[in-house]
């Protein structure tokens, strides 16, 4: 398959080498058991791939978002699911950009070495959903700590993480000028918190995605775990979300190429009416169209990454890349399933698994409508719709 922009060929080759040890059958088994790919994650951590964006002074590789996104893309392009690990790649960014020198010294070298997992970020709440700034979880300063009470939902990888980034309200909504003020970010040591004010309840879901409800009941968080300035957490969060969106766009691109490659191969091999099904325009044109859409989305993904790496504003491009890539991968998933006819439904072809996995990205980490609302308001100057 000839693609337009496969940057960083040396990283791709090395990640593919690692992924070859974890073939389709491995991920299929993990999916069937709703298990976590521990061996795969351990191999990625040992090889240092998840520390790509940590500066060299803290033991990482000091690479940019473009290179990091190639790592995530290749995992999905090889048939895996980077959702098991992508938090480790970007959650540390909040600490890196906004943490104190002491916090960075304390956590980043251990994260880079794979001794500490920072896989989780807790933002979403059951009653407020996409209206993030109205979230109700509170962190109240008392003596040397903050006392956290409230509830979160859909918080991923908590059972496979040591640290979690938490967004909570430190100043009541009624007392701030703008909704986005009065929110703060904390680093939560899950090893101490779970069972001591934090309860974790797994959510059974459509994908093999380790995700949970969290209940905070007077969890005491040391004051030194506040990241940056109290009340500025929402602003800090936004910078990190751009990286998350660009990385997830890259995962969708990886999925998209995987679907196109599988569909193309099958269309060439499957003989019906005494000829390959791929010789019918009704079969080959949708595959070609899916490929074109992935190629186009890929260019926006690289634009978002390049801007992030150049420290230029990239919110619009990260949002648009995530939307285009998620839509293109979903379209490619549909085409791939259709091309395989009944066999697309058989687990051993892995298409139904990847089909479920890639569907998630039109809802998380931000749903499509919220991206439309952002573009309409911030790029087109239309009235805010919510
Ligand atoms: C598997 C999974 C893993 C996740 N992991 C995490 C995680 O690790 N951490 C975390 O914090 N969150 C996580 N999430 C949550 C995810 O980010 C949210 O589900 C997502 O942002 C949408 O929020 P919601 O589910 O509350 O939907 P809602 O906000 O209730 O929206 C429901 C629907 O209404 C639409 N809608 C809402 N408001 C408007 C409007 N004004 N205009 C037009 N349409 C609107 C939305 O687009 C959506 O289609 C995860 C979710 C899933 C499913």
Automatic annotation (TrEMBL):
UniProt xrefs under Pfam families: Acyl-CoA_dh_1, Acyl-CoA_dh_M, Acyl-CoA_dh_N
SUPFAM superfamilies from the UniProt entry: Acyl-CoA dehydrogenase C-terminal domain-like (SSF47203), Acyl-CoA dehydrogenase NM domain-like (SSF56645)
InterPro entries referenced in this protein's UniProt entry, alphabetically: Acyl-CoA_DH_CS, Acyl-CoA_Oxase/DH_mid-dom, Acyl-CoA_Oxase/DH_mid-dom_sf, AcylCo_DH-like_C, AcylCo_DH/oxidase_C, AcylCoA_DH/ox_N, AcylCoA_DH/ox_N_sf, AcylCoA_DH/oxidase_NM_dom_sf
Record has Flavoprotein as a keyword: yes
Coiled coil: none
Residue stretches making up the Acyl-CoA oxidase/dehydrogenase middle domain: 120-217
Domain Acyl-CoA dehydrogenase/oxidase N-terminal: 8-114
Gene Ontology molecular functions: acyl-CoA dehydrogenase activity; flavin adenine dinucleotide binding
Alphabetical list of CDD domains matching this protein: ACAD
Entry's EC annotation: 1.3.99.-
Keywords annotated in UniProt: FAD, Flavoprotein, Oxidoreductase
Location of the Acyl-CoA dehydrogenase/oxidase C-terminal domain: 231-364
Listed cofactors: FAD
PANTHER family: ACYL-COA DEHYDROGENASE, ISOVALERYL-COA DEHYDROGENASE, MITOCHONDRIAL-RELATED
Family statement: Belongs to the acyl-CoA dehydrogenase family.
Protein name in the entry: Acyl-CoA dehydrogenase
Organism (species): Candidatus Accumulibacter adjunctus
Name of the gene: mmgC_4
């Amino acid at each position: 398959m000839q693609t337009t922009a496969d940057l960083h060929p040396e990283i791709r080759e090395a990640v593919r080498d690692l992924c070859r040890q974890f073939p389709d059958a491995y991920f299929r088994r993990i999916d069937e058991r709703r298990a976590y790919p521990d061996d795969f994650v351990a191999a990625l951590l040992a090889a240092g791939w998840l520390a790509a964006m940590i500066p060299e002074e803290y033991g990482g590789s000091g690479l940019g978002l473009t290179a990091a996104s190639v790592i995530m893309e290749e995992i999905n392009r090889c048939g895996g699911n980077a959702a098991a690990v992508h938090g480790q790649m970007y959650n540390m960014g909040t600490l890196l950009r906004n943490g104190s020198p002491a916090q960075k010294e304390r956590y980043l070298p251990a994260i880079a070495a794979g001794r500490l997992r920072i896989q989780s970020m807790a933002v979403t709440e059951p009653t407020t959903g996409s209206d993030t700034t109205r979230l109700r979880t509170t962190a109240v300063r008392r003596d040397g700590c903050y006392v956290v009470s409230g509830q979160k939902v859909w918080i991923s990888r908590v059972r496979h993480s040591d640290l979690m980034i938490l967004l909570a309200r430190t100043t009541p909504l009624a007392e701030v000028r703008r909704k986005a003020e009065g929110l703060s970010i904390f680093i939560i040591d899950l090893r101490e918190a779970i069972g001591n004010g934090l309860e974790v309840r797994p959510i059974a879901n459509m994908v093999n995605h380790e995700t949970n409800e969290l209940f905070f009941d007077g969890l005491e968080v040391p004051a030194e775990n506040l990241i940056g300035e109290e009340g500025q957490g929402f602003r800090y969060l936004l910078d990190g979300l751009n990286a998350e969106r660009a990385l997830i766009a890259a995962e969708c691109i990886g999925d998209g190429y995987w679907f196109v490659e599988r569909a193309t191969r099958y269309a060439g091999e499957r003989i019906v009416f005494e000829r390959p099904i791929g010789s019918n325009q009704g079969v080959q044109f949708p595959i070609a169209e899916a490929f074109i859409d992935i190629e186009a989305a890929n260019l926006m993904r690289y634009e978002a990454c390049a801007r992030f790496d150049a420290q230029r504003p990239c919110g619009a491009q990260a949002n648009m890349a995530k939307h285009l890539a998620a839509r293109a991968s979903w379209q490619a998933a549909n085409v791939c399933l259709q091309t395989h006819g009944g066999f697309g439904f058989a687990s051993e072809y892995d298409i139904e698994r990847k089909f479920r996995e890639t569907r998630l990205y039109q809802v998380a980490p931000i749903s499509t409508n919220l991206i439309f609302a952002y573009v309409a308001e911030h790029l087109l100057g239309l009235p805010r719709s919510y």
